[in-house]
Amino acid sequence: MTVAAGDSIFTIVHGHQWRRNGAMQWWQGHTFNGGAPGASHFLCHGHWHAFDMETTGNRTRICGATFEGASAWFEEKTGGTAKKGAVIFTSLAGEFADLSIV
Q1: How much is the pTM?
Q2: Which of 9, 18, 71, 83 has its CA 20 to 30 A from that of 49?
Q3: 58 to each of 3, 8, 18, how far by Cα in Å?
């Protein structure tokens, strides 16, 4: 889903569409092929059970933290558990500010 909020554009997806380190390539494909995510400033997703962020140029990918706090699958795969919470930030003209996990 790609939506405008104020003067920033967000694409929200689950995150299963790519493997780790593949989000920017997925996003580039949509940009090249004229897909709606191509206009976005922010690509927001979950799926990885832990907060993560990546920036390239004026594009920001944010993986939200999890609310569950403990995932048997995540713990078996990584040996750890993720910090639970919600990612909150403000945006202005495609730039983020005041990012935190609460």
Answers
A1: 0.87
A2: 9
A3: 17, 11, 21
